[in-house]
Every structure is written in C-alpha cells, then in structure tokens.
Write a structure and sequence with these properties.
The complex is a heterodimer of chains A (355) and B (312). Chain A is an alpha+beta fold and 355 residues long. Helix content of chain A is 24%, strand content 36%. Chain A has 8 helices and 19 strands. In chain A, the strands form 4 sheets. In chain A, strands 6-7-8-3-9-10 form a 6-stranded mixed beta sheet, sandwiched between helices. Chain A has a 5-stranded antiparallel beta sheet with strand order 13-12-11-14-19. In chain A, a hairpin with a 4-residue loop joins strand 15 and strand 16. Chain B has 312 residues and is mainly α. Chain B folds into 2 domains: 41 residues, no CATH class; 233 residues, MetI-like fold (Orthogonal Bundle), CATH 1.10.3720.10. Chain B is built from 13 helices and no strands. In chain B, helix 1 crosses helix 13, helix 4 runs antiparallel to helix 7 and helix 10 packs antiparallel against helix 13. Classes of the chains: A alpha+beta (355), B mainly alpha (312). Chains A and B meet through strand 6 and helix 2 of A and helix 8 and helix 9 of B.
C-alpha cells in the first residue's frame, strides 16, 4: 500500500502542452477516480504515474519515493488497460503468471499466487483458456487478476469498463469496488463516465483541458460543484443552466432570464442583486406543479423508476426528472418550479460558483 | 384432403427444384464463359506444362526427335548412377539452410531496428526493399564484377592486407558469394514483411509487458516474436521455397563452378535441359525438386503448431 502524490505535473508533446501543472494526491488505500471529457489529460496523467509517459515537469511520488526517472516495473504499480492487453498467445494462467516468472519467483509461489487471484475473481475454471476463448467480462477479470498477483502498492485502471455492455459494466463496477474493499489497496481509476466516478470513488478528480477543475467526494462534487463545467459534467441528466439577472420582485429574490421568465432564488442570492449570473438547477430539483413557470413538453423519456421530461421555457431547454408517472403528452403545456434553495449560482463569465 | 395437399406441395417443390436446377445450369454456363479467358490461360500455361513435364520425366526426350517412354529409369539413374546428383543436392540443401537462417535473422534484425526508429522508417523500408524489384540477373552481374578475380572485392581485401583467395574461384567461398548476393537481393522483402507485422503488434501489449517487468529483450522474445509468428512462418516458408529454386545468381556468377561447388538443383535442371538437351532427365530433376519443396513445406507446416500463434 502506498499514497500517490502528484506535484505540478506538466506534460508537453513538443510545443503542445496537454497537462498544465496538475497537483493531486491519493491517500493510502483510497479509491480515486480521474474523470473528464475526452482529451482532458486524465489517461495521460495515469500513464505518467505508470511510467508509460515521461514527465515533462513536476514530480510524481509513490509511497514517499519520487518515481519520475524509474521504469514502470520499479514503481510497484499494476495497470488494467482499456483493451485489457491480455497476451493472446498465453493462457489465462500464463497471462497472470507472466510478471511473476519475470521476477524469477519459484514455481510453487507462482502457482499459489495465480490460484489465490483466480479464487478471488472466480477464474479457476478458465485458467487453461486463451483470451480469445473468454467473454468481455471474463477478460476484464483476467486483466485484474494479472494485476492482483503482483501485490502492487498502487492499482491503475485506464477506462477498464468501456468495452463492456451496460449490464456487465454495472456488475464489474461492483466487483472492482469489492476488490478494493478486500485488498484495501490504493487505486487510481480513469473514466469518462461520471456514473462510474460517482458510484466507485472515495474521491473524484474532475479534469478539463489538462487542468483539475475540482477534487472532492462524489456527493460533495455533486452538491457543490466548483464551477458550471463540473456542475454540467457530473450528474445525469445534466444540470440545467439559465442566464439572467438577479432581481428582487415583490419581496422575492428571482432570476430574470433574457425572455423575462422569473426563476425563484434562495436567500443566498441576495448578495448578487443586480448582477448577471448563471443559475444551475439539477433536473430532480425541478417539480411539475400547477401554476408554475409555463413550459411545453418536447419529449418524455420514462425509465421506469423515474421520468425524464425535456421541456422548453420560452425557448430555453430544460430537463426535469420526476419520480411519479406523468400523464402529460408531447406538446402539452405544464407548469414547473425549481426548488429555490437548491439553485446554484455561477459567475456568468468565469463559470465559478458564487453560492 | 391432406393427402391432396401433400401431393400438391410435392409437385410444387419438384417444379421449383427443376426450375431451380435449370436456373443453376444457365447461371453455371454463363459463369463458365466469363471464366473461360482465365481458364484457357491457366490450362495452356500451367496445367498442360505440368502434365507434360510429368510425362516427360518418364521419357528420354532430347528436344529433337520423338520422346520414348523409358519408365522410371530416369529416376533410377538420378538416385543411383548420376555422380553429380548427390553433390548437387548437398549444395542445394547447404545453400537453403544457410541462406534461410541468415535471411530470417538479418531481415528480422533489420525489421526490429527500423521499427525502433523515431524518424526515417519509410525511407529505410524503401531502401531495403529496392533490391527486391531490381532484376535478379542485373544484380548478379554487378556482384559478379565485384567478386571477379581482381575485382572490387579483391581490391578491398588487398587494401586491408587480408590475404584470401578470390571468392568466385574458391571451392568453399564461391557458395558464400552466392549466398551474399542472394541475401542482398532477398532480405528486403522479408524486412518489409516483418516490419509491417511488428508495427501491427498493439502497443498496449508491450506497455502491459513493461509494467509486468519485461525488459526490451524479454518484450521482443516473449511478446513481439510470438505475436508476429504467423508472418514469420509465412516468410520462412516462402524463403525456403525460393531458396530451393535458386538459379539466376549461379547462372550468372559461377555457372555451377568452380567444379560443381555451386551447382544446385535449379542449375542442374537448366544444365541437363538446355545445355545437354536431356529434357526428360531435366524434368525428372524438376519433379524431385518439387517433391523436396513439398516435403520441406509440409514439415514446416507440421512444425508450426509448436511455435506459430494465431489469434483466432
């Protein structure tokens, strides 16, 4: 077990800088998820930790040891790749034993380690099969087995579930989480799927364009996004954003948007009266009520447990999540109301959270 | 009622199948006419000569005159009475063994080296591939001038104060000269082939191996080589076949000499057929060579189970 500390990590390819001085730390035994849209530098950062990419500037410290100049094998890490990268010419057993053979462990030791990992991951019946004879989920487990046998200080996962179907992804999510609880190892996990980040992480690191936007626990990030990007990226369906000016109307604090629609705000918005802001409202914090803000229904997506409504308020698209079955039809006019206390205010120019 | 229905169905299906088979016949005829131009060429220039050479190998045809059937006496003579056959066979196998090993090792080495380059990969691929599309006869003539007594090679050796006999006139060195020329001309093809295969190995396997603790040599030996083994196998089989058929270089540079130090089966066929006009006997040697190539290829296919990994 070990902590991982990244200090001011910079990565540049020639004159193009892709990571701009990133600093983040994963505590010993913590499950940290790096999440962000494609091209944000999360995989590059993971590969820098692994030693597969050189570090242009800054420091990476694993277990109190700066590893910038160390080869991957000297860093005491194991990595699970997006494509699994199982050696196709080796059986499951040989894939898992490969690193142990290279480190000249005894046959008995290798057999014991492979057995132990196979038992943890329920791979025993598959040990003599080749990767091509396995399903996606089984390959994924073998890739994890290959990592486990080495007892690494840090596990690195590079979008390991993105090649699996939705159902298997949910199942494997649980298995990785269970593995973390069992091994209590430090794990750094890269994904672009915010749902994976929310459900698996002890702490989430949200990245964009080579920079860290926010670090925090899943609910901290969900409830208090540092800026409108994080607010929009975390959560599905996405947060609704409306631009306008904070005004007081009839003793009530409201946001008047460009179309003149009034969106009620909580008391914390008082400090911003007269200022142009952007408000963010989670879809589940909007209710369908009679006499609310007039909206016309554009689309209805029932998911079973809840219904996603895409509505339009004076040309502004808004998504509403309701837990009740809704009788409304596409084209119908309904009234909606956002919970004023759950509305987040962002600076219109910088996107930084104001309240 | 059911019986009537059954009868109707049977009649219907019979009609359909008769109609279908008529359609098949018509389509078959059309297809045959479309195939005819290619088929005529293949029959005339491939099937007929092959059959003719089999037939000829059982005759004593001397190019002029009528061939006479002599049974298997050509084969008996080849294996029991011809004093040149065994040395020629030995030369052929020696050439094949040395050339095959050197070709595969050098081309693989070059392929690995090219794939490790950060710049100029394409340029080097072209450079090494150039000899492949240079006419073999032209290559052999140039090299003959280099290796000829008093030629460029001897000049270099003299300049380096290395005392050695002239390559083409020495019983042992002549075959080495042929091998050097063959390698120069033949290595490029396999280099490009292996280089392409190496570049196709997904980077993630090599990265996984690095994390697993494999050094550069282990990554090559345990990951890259097994993963390119199907291409390596193809290259080995094709090189073995072409090396058993070696002719151009020998014809131009040594004419099988000195003595018969560089006479191979390919050259022996030419010598018997077109110098001694023993077409029947030459065909016999050709068929023995064919049998050897088939046998060697079969052995290689059998051995591939031990070292070739197909990912499907």
């Amino acid at each position: 077990m070990a902590s991982v500390t990244i200090r001011n990590a910079v990565k540049a390819y020639g004159s193009m800088q892709v990571l701009h001085g990133v600093s983040v730390a994963a505590r010993d035994g913590e499950f940290v998820v790096l999440v962000g849209p494609s091209g944000c530098g999360k995989s590059t950062l993971l590969r820098m930790i692994a030693g597969l990419e050189s570090i242009t500037d800054g420091e990476i410290d694993i277990g109190g040891r700066v590893v910038n100049e160390l080869e991957p094998k000297e860093r005491d890490i194991a990595m699970v790749f997006q494509s699994y990268a199982l050696y196709p010419h080796m059986t499951v057993r040989d894939n898992m034993a490969f690193s142990l053979k290279l480190s000249r462990k005894s046959k008995q030791e290798i057999e014991n380690e492979v057995r132990r990992a196979a038992e943890i991951l329920a791979l025993e019946p598959l040990l003599d099969r080749y990767p091509r004879q396995l399903s996606g989920g089984q390959r994924q487990r073998v890739a994890m087995g290959r990592a486990i046998v080495r007892h690494p200080a840090v596990f690195l996962f590079d979008e390991p579930l993105s090649n699996l179907d939705a159902k298997l992804r949910v199942q494997m999510r649980g298995e990785i989480k269970a593995l973390h609880s069992r091994l209590k190892a430090t794990m750094i996990y890269v994904t672009h799927d915010q749902m994976e980040a929310m459900t698996m992480a002890d702490r989430i690191v949200v990245m964009r364009a080579g920079k860290i936007e926010q670090i925090g626990s899943p609910l901290e990030i969900y409830d208090h996004p540092a800026n409108s990007f994080v607010g929009g990226f975390i959560g599905s369906p996405s947060m609704n954003f409306v631009d306008g000016t904070v005004v007081e109307e009839g003793g009530r604090l409201v946001l008047r948007d460009v179309s003149g629609t009034l969106w009620p705000l909580g008391d914390k918005a008082r400090a911003y009266i007269g200022r142009q802001v952007q408000i963010g409202v989670r879809p589940e914090h909007i209710r369908v009520v009679e006499g609310g803000i007039a909206a016309s229904v554009l689309n209805i997506e029932p998911t079973g447990s809840e219904t996603h409504l895409q509505v339009e308020v004076n040309g502004q698209p808004i998504v509403v999540v309701v837990h009740d079955r809704l009788a409304a039809e596409v084209g119908a006019s309904i009234g909606i109301e956002a919970d004023p206390d759950r509305v987040t205010l962002f600076d219109q120019q910088t996107g930084t959270r104001l309240s | 009622m059911t019986a009537i229905n059954d009868v109707t169905e049977v009649t219907g299906s019979q009609k359909r199948s008769r109609w279908g088979s008529r359609l098949d016949r018509r389509e078959g005829r059309t297809a045959f006419f479309f195939l005819l131009p290619g088929l005529i060429g293949m029959v005339l220039f491939l099937v007929v000569p092959i059959i003719a050479s089999v037939v000829l190998s059982f005759t004593n045809w001397k190019l002029l005159g009528t061939p006479q059937f002599v049974g298997i006496s050509n084969y008996v003579r080849l294996f029991t009475a011809d004093p040149q056959f065994w040395p020629v066979l030995r030369n052929t196998l020696f050439f094949t063994a040395e050339y095959l090993v050197l070709n595969i090792v050098i081309s693989l080495g070059l392929a690995v080296w090219i794939s490790s380059l950060k710049m100029g990969q394409r340029w080097f691929r072209v450079v090494f591939f150039l000899p492949t599309f240079t006419p073999g006869i032209a290559v052999a003539i140039v090299w003959m001038l280099i290796f000829a007594p008093g030629g460029f090679f001897d000049f270099i050796m003299r300049s380096l104060s290395v005392a050695m006999p002239s390559m083409l006139t020495d019983q042992t060195l002549a075959m080495q000269a042929i091998i050097i020329v063959s390698l120069w001309a033949g290595v490029g093809y396999n280099t490009v082939l292996f280089n392409a295969a190496l570049d196709m190995v997904p980077q993630s396997y090599l990265e996984a191996a690095r994390i697993d603790g494999a050094n550069a040599w282990q990554r090559f030996w345990k990951i890259r080589l097994p993963l390119i083994s199907p291409t390596l196998f193809f290259g080995t089989v094709m090189t073995a076949i072409t090396s058993l058929q070696v002719f151009d270089q020998i014809y131009v540079m040594t004419r099988g000499g000195p003595g018969n130090a560089t006479a191979t089966l390919g050259y022996a066929i030419y010598q018997r057929g077109f110098q001694n006009f023993q077409m029947g006997y030459a065909s016999t040697i050709a068929w023995v060579m064919f049998a050897m190539i088939m046998a060697l290829t079969a052995v290689q296919f059998w051995l591939q189970r031990k070292w070739v990994h197909y990912d499907n």
